[in-house]
Design goal:
heterodimer; A: alpha+beta; 11-stranded mixed sheet; two-stranded antiparallel sheet; 14 helices; 51% helix; elongated; B: mainly alpha
Chain lengths: 397, 98
């Protein structure tokens, strides 16, 4: 070997691996538990990143400003006449009343999102037709376009007519004229899109009311200024802006997102207690081994190098296995383990085959959270033992 | 072969698997990027505000347009109980215009 320093380290690694192999079942158990903890943390991070990325790209065209009426802390229907009070605000291009809401299907126990649409985005029907896998947009009364999951859950197959209940339990019959594409499932899976009049009829909403008002501004840079003027002009309303919608997704899918991440961090903490206990309390035979090595002429630094390699081999193996398994779990298995939590009791379950970007910062953060503490937990007790005189260590001191 | 050699061989094999997964991911992401205009079109034309991830509760179906306290609003002393609520952090910390 050309480099004696490298040869020396490889010899240490050889010795470490032989030593680990002698206690292979114990060490394998540590690697498996460690890898599972890293797998869970990495999977959670990948799912959050994947959803955040999809939200960032898809919701960049979300409504610029939404106005909701609030009464006693709850959102309720907003009078369309409120739009007239906004005429004086410079910078508003258009105010569109929206009718939308939820429909609970008692037969399938699924929740659908019903959206009334009359040229919301200012685009043509031909443009929106690109999002349809088959059929056309509603052009007449009682026609609808469905998301893939609604069509599947209702079990329509060849059938194109189905009914929903109005609040007074009378039936509203709808004809399916089109289906949204699978590619847009993450946005449209549970949608029932109707004309504005049909949505109003289904919900029993009076003509003068809407679910909320959507405001389009002339200059997107003025969104926050216009929103502030609106909230001053319409007391008792809540004004949401596109940047706030984007920020919401940053917050709900961030590192600190939700109770699940707390549970995972608790699992990580539990692992460290386990690792610290395993690594810090050196077994008598391990102490004897260190003492014999010192009698044979090993220096304290050599013992530390071996212990370092031991921790590095275990933690690196667990880290690589955990991260690789996490990626496979999220990309190829659609985050199967998290789906029961994420979908909860939803009958309509999302197709979570995400392809999250791999960020070096996330990998480093995970590395620092897992590998570094384990290395410390293994090297420090070995240093304490190796600093003792050999005869004391042999006597179990 | 020396133990260190075997270990390095194992690391290389795992590394190659990771490189393969990375290349596969890059190809899939290129296809995903091609779908983005479709998603934006749906968002703009339908006035959508949220991803369809969880449909069990209105505050997890549409987290962007609901209050942070909605999970506790159903009745006095009501507690958040939907499983998907454990995945989403409350969005209420964001500054609202009002």
């Amino acid at each position: 070997m050309a480099n004696p320093l490298l040869e020396r380290q490889i010899n240490f690694l050889d010795y470490t691996l032989s030593s680990l192999w002698r206690k292979r079942y114990k060490n394998l158990a540590v690697v498996v538990v460690f890898a599972v903890v890293i797998f869970l943390l990495a999977s959670f991070q990948l799912v959050s990143n994947g959803l955040l990325e999809r939200a960032q790209t898809a919701l960049v065209m979300a409504p610029e400003i939404l106005i909701q009426k609030m009464t006693a802390g709850r959102q309720e229907s907003i009078p369309i006449a409120y739009a007239e009070r906004l005429h004086d605000i410079f910078g508003i291009r258009q105010v569109v009343p929206r009718v939308w809401g939820y429909y609970f299907d008692e037969v399938t126990l699924a929740n659908y999102t019903v959206i009334g649409r009359d040229q919301v985005g200012g685009g043509t029907d031909d443009q929106l037709a690109q999002v349809l896998s088959e059929g056309r947009l509603p052009t007449a009364a009682n026609e609808t376009v469905l998301g893939q999951a609604v069509f599947r859950t209702k079990g329509l197959q060849e059938q194109r007519i189905f009914s929903l209940f109005r609040p007074d339990l009378s039936l509203k019959t709808l004809t399916v004229t089109g289906l949204f594409k699978k590619e847009s499932n993450l946005l449209t899976d549970d949608l029932i899109v109707l004309s504005l009049a049909d949505a109003r009829d289904l919900f029993g909403l009076p003509d003068g009311l809407a679910s909320d008002l959507m405001v389009t501004v002339a200059n997107p840079r003025e969104i926050s200024t216009v929103a502030k003027k609106i909230s001053e002009a319409l007391p008792g309303t809540r004004v949401l802006t596109r940047p706030q919608i984007e920020k919401t997704y940053h917050m709900i899918f961030g590192w600190r997102s939700g109770f699940a991440s707390v549970c995972l961090l608790a699992a990580l903490a539990a692992f460290f207690i386990f690792a610290w206990d395993k690594a810090s309390g050196l077994a008598p035979d391990e102490k004897r081994e260190i003492a014999i090595l010192k009698i044979l002429g090993w220096q304290t630094a050599d013992v530390l190098v071996v212990r370092f390699w031991e921790g590095a081999v275990i933690s690196l193996a667990a880290y690589l296995l955990g991260c690789t398994a996490a990626y496979i779990h999220v990309v190829f298995f659609g985050s199967t383990l998290f789906l029961p939590v994420l979908a909860g009791w939803s009958v309509i379950r999302p197709d979570l085959h995400l392809l999250p970007a791999i960020h070096l910062a996330d990998l480093l953060l995970l590395f620092c959270l897992t590998v570094m503490p384990y290395l410390t937990a293994t090297v420090v007790p070995a240093w304490r033992c190796a600093s003792l005189p050999s005869d004391t260590a042999l006597q179990g001191g | 072969m020396r133990p260190a050699g075997l270990f390095l061989l194992w690391l290389c094999a795992l590394g190659m698997l990771d490189v393969g997964l990375f290349i596969h991911g890059q190809q899939g992401r290129a296809q995903q990027r091609a779908e983005e205009p479709l998603m934006r079109l749906a968002t703009a034309e339908l006035g959508l505000t949220d991803l369809c991830v969880a449909t069990e509760a209105r505050y997890t179906r549409h987290p962007a347009v609901t209050d942070g306290v909605v999970p506790f609003m159903d009745h006095p002393g009501g507690l958040e109980h939907f499983p998907s609520g454990s995945f989403f952090a409350p969005p209420m910390a964001g500054p609202r215009a009002r």
